[in-house]
Design brief:
Number of strands: 12
Order of helices and strands: HEEEEEEEEEEEE
Helix content: 10-25%
CATH class of the largest domain: Mainly Beta
CATH architecture of the largest domain: Sandwich
Oligomer: single chain
Low-confidence stretches: 47-53, 56-64
Number of helices: 1
Shape: elongated
Radius of gyration: 21 Å
Protein backbone atom coordinates (compact mmCIF):
# COMPACT_ATOMS: atom_id res chain seq x y z
CA UNK A 1 0.00 0.00 0.00
CA UNK A 2 1.41 3.36 -1.02
CA UNK A 3 1.84 6.53 0.99
CA UNK A 4 -1.03 8.23 -0.79
CA UNK A 5 -3.47 5.39 0.04
CA UNK A 6 -2.47 5.39 3.72
CA UNK A 7 -2.86 9.14 3.87
CA UNK A 8 -6.36 8.94 2.34
CA UNK A 9 -7.34 6.22 4.80
CA UNK A 10 -5.98 8.29 7.71
CA UNK A 11 -7.90 11.40 6.54
CA UNK A 12 -11.11 9.40 6.09
CA UNK A 13 -10.72 7.81 9.55
CA UNK A 14 -10.09 11.22 11.13
CA UNK A 15 -13.18 12.65 9.38
CA UNK A 16 -15.32 9.77 10.71
CA UNK A 17 -14.00 10.34 14.26
CA UNK A 18 -14.65 14.11 14.08
CA UNK A 19 -18.17 13.58 12.71
CA UNK A 20 -18.90 10.95 15.37
CA UNK A 21 -17.61 13.21 18.14
CA UNK A 22 -19.70 16.13 16.85
CA UNK A 23 -22.84 13.99 16.65
CA UNK A 24 -22.21 12.62 20.15
CA UNK A 25 -21.77 16.12 21.59
CA UNK A 26 -24.98 17.29 19.91
CA UNK A 27 -26.97 14.25 21.05
CA UNK A 28 -25.78 14.00 24.67
CA UNK A 29 -25.01 17.70 25.38
CA UNK A 30 -22.67 16.79 28.26
CA UNK A 31 -21.92 20.43 29.13
CA UNK A 32 -25.43 20.69 30.59
CA UNK A 33 -24.27 18.54 33.51
CA UNK A 34 -22.19 21.51 34.68
CA UNK A 35 -24.67 24.28 33.86
CA UNK A 36 -27.56 24.97 36.23
CA UNK A 37 -30.59 27.00 35.22
CA UNK A 38 -32.44 28.40 38.24
CA UNK A 39 -36.02 29.66 37.93
CA UNK A 40 -37.79 31.66 40.66
CA UNK A 41 -41.40 32.12 39.58
CA UNK A 42 -44.00 33.32 42.06
CA UNK A 43 -47.25 31.44 42.39
CA UNK A 44 -49.58 32.93 39.78
CA UNK A 45 -52.56 34.86 41.11
CA UNK A 46 -53.85 36.22 37.81
CA UNK A 47 -55.33 33.95 35.15
CA UNK A 48 -52.65 31.81 33.52
CA UNK A 49 -52.70 31.29 29.79
CA UNK A 50 -53.15 27.56 29.26
CA UNK A 51 -50.98 26.10 26.49
CA UNK A 52 -52.53 23.65 24.11
CA UNK A 53 -50.17 20.97 25.46
CA UNK A 54 -49.65 17.67 23.73
CA UNK A 55 -51.68 14.79 24.91
CA UNK A 56 -51.59 11.14 24.09
CA UNK A 57 -53.92 8.24 24.71
CA UNK A 58 -57.12 10.27 24.73
CA UNK A 59 -56.59 13.19 27.13
CA UNK A 60 -59.78 15.05 27.94
CA UNK A 61 -60.65 18.06 25.78
CA UNK A 62 -63.75 19.37 27.57
CA UNK A 63 -64.25 23.01 28.40
CA UNK A 64 -63.84 22.89 32.18
CA UNK A 65 -61.40 20.99 34.39
CA UNK A 66 -63.04 17.97 35.95
CA UNK A 67 -62.23 15.96 39.01
CA UNK A 68 -62.37 19.07 41.25
CA UNK A 69 -64.98 21.07 43.18
CA UNK A 70 -67.19 23.33 41.06
CA UNK A 71 -66.75 26.70 42.84
CA UNK A 72 -63.37 28.38 42.34
CA UNK A 73 -61.46 29.23 45.53
CA UNK A 74 -61.00 32.86 46.65
CA UNK A 75 -57.22 32.32 46.74
CA UNK A 76 -54.89 29.79 45.05
CA UNK A 77 -55.52 26.36 46.57
CA UNK A 78 -53.57 23.10 46.28
CA UNK A 79 -55.75 20.25 45.00
CA UNK A 80 -52.96 17.62 44.73
CA UNK A 81 -49.32 17.32 45.74
CA UNK A 82 -46.38 14.95 45.85
CA UNK A 83 -42.65 14.69 46.55
CA UNK A 84 -40.22 14.04 43.69
CA UNK A 85 -38.06 10.90 43.89
CA UNK A 86 -34.90 10.24 41.89
CA UNK A 87 -34.80 8.12 38.79
CA UNK A 88 -32.05 8.45 36.15
CA UNK A 89 -30.65 11.53 37.95
CA UNK A 90 -30.78 12.72 41.56
CA UNK A 91 -34.02 14.72 41.82
CA UNK A 92 -35.89 16.34 44.71
CA UNK A 93 -38.61 18.92 45.27
CA UNK A 94 -42.36 19.23 45.64
CA UNK A 95 -45.04 19.09 42.95
CA UNK A 96 -48.40 20.78 43.48
CA UNK A 97 -51.45 21.21 41.32
CA UNK A 98 -52.92 24.59 42.25
CA UNK A 99 -56.45 25.76 41.49
CA UNK A 100 -56.40 29.51 40.87
CA UNK A 101 -59.22 31.92 41.75
CA UNK A 102 -60.37 32.02 38.10
CA UNK A 103 -60.84 28.22 38.11
CA UNK A 104 -57.76 27.40 35.99
CA UNK A 105 -55.10 24.97 37.22
CA UNK A 106 -51.32 25.26 37.35
CA UNK A 107 -48.74 22.59 38.05
CA UNK A 108 -46.09 24.07 40.34
CA UNK A 109 -42.61 22.70 41.01
CA UNK A 110 -41.16 23.99 44.28
CA UNK A 111 -37.54 23.66 45.40
CA UNK A 112 -36.78 21.56 42.32
CA UNK A 113 -33.24 20.24 42.24
CA UNK A 114 -32.27 17.90 39.40
CA UNK A 115 -29.58 17.59 36.74
CA UNK A 116 -29.81 19.61 33.60
CA UNK A 117 -30.13 17.59 30.41
CA UNK A 118 -31.18 17.61 26.79
CA UNK A 119 -34.87 17.99 25.93
CA UNK A 120 -36.33 17.82 29.46
CA UNK A 121 -40.14 18.06 29.71
CA UNK A 122 -42.72 18.25 32.49
CA UNK A 123 -45.27 15.45 32.06
CA UNK A 124 -48.55 14.83 33.83
CA UNK A 125 -49.14 11.05 33.57
CA UNK A 126 -51.29 8.13 34.65
CA UNK A 127 -48.30 5.86 35.35
CA UNK A 128 -47.45 4.57 38.82
CA UNK A 129 -44.31 6.00 40.39
CA UNK A 130 -41.81 3.20 40.99
CA UNK A 131 -38.50 3.56 42.77
CA UNK A 132 -35.22 2.61 41.14
CA UNK A 133 -34.54 1.52 37.57
CA UNK A 134 -38.01 -0.07 37.32
CA UNK A 135 -39.52 3.44 37.30
CA UNK A 136 -37.25 5.07 34.72
CA UNK A 137 -39.21 4.28 31.57
CA UNK A 138 -42.88 3.73 32.56
CA UNK A 139 -44.26 7.22 31.96
CA UNK A 140 -44.64 7.02 28.19
CA UNK A 141 -46.47 3.67 28.36
CA UNK A 142 -49.90 5.15 29.02
CA UNK A 143 -51.65 8.52 29.09
CA UNK A 144 -49.37 11.52 29.42
CA UNK A 145 -49.74 15.24 28.89
CA UNK A 146 -46.68 17.35 28.13
CA UNK A 147 -46.86 20.71 29.87
CA UNK A 148 -43.80 21.97 28.02
CA UNK A 149 -40.05 22.14 28.35
CA UNK A 150 -38.57 22.24 31.84
CA UNK A 151 -37.79 25.93 32.42
CA UNK A 152 -34.82 25.24 34.66
CA UNK A 153 -33.31 22.39 36.63
CA UNK A 154 -33.50 24.27 39.93
CA UNK A 155 -36.00 26.49 41.71
CA UNK A 156 -39.73 27.23 41.62
CA UNK A 157 -41.72 27.19 38.39
CA UNK A 158 -45.29 27.06 37.07
CA UNK A 159 -46.89 25.20 34.16
CA UNK A 160 -50.47 26.07 33.19
CA UNK A 161 -52.70 23.04 32.63
CA UNK A 162 -54.68 23.15 29.39
CA UNK A 163 -58.35 23.97 29.80
CA UNK A 164 -60.40 20.79 30.05
CA UNK A 165 -57.69 18.66 31.65
CA UNK A 166 -59.41 15.90 33.61
CA UNK A 167 -57.29 15.73 36.76
CA UNK A 168 -58.89 12.46 37.82
CA UNK A 169 -57.09 10.71 34.93
CA UNK A 170 -53.57 11.72 35.98
CA UNK A 171 -51.80 10.34 39.05
CA UNK A 172 -48.18 11.39 38.69
CA UNK A 173 -45.70 13.93 37.34
CA UNK A 174 -42.39 13.13 35.64
CA UNK A 175 -39.39 15.25 34.71
CA UNK A 176 -39.02 13.44 31.40
CA UNK A 177 -36.01 13.40 29.07
CA UNK A 178 -37.64 13.17 25.64
CA UNK A 179 -34.28 12.66 23.94
CA UNK A 180 -33.55 9.39 25.77
CA UNK A 181 -37.07 8.35 26.87
CA UNK A 182 -36.20 8.28 30.55
CA UNK A 183 -37.50 9.90 33.74
CA UNK A 184 -35.04 12.06 35.69
CA UNK A 185 -37.44 12.03 38.64
CA UNK A 186 -41.15 11.67 39.40
CA UNK A 187 -43.81 12.31 42.02
CA UNK A 188 -47.01 10.47 42.82
CA UNK A 189 -49.89 12.93 43.21
CA UNK A 190 -52.09 12.70 46.29
CA UNK A 191 -55.39 14.58 46.27
CA UNK A 192 -55.60 17.21 49.00
Amino acid sequence: MGRVSRRRISIAALAVVVLGLGAGLFWFQPWKLWVDETVSEALPSAPATAPSGTASSGASTGTAPTGTASAPPAAPQAVASGELISHEHSTSGTVKIIRLPDGTHTLRLENLDTSNGPDLRVWLTDAPVKEGVAGWRVFDDGRHLSLGKLKGNKGDQNYALPEGTDLSKYTSVSIWCDRFDVSFGAAELTRV
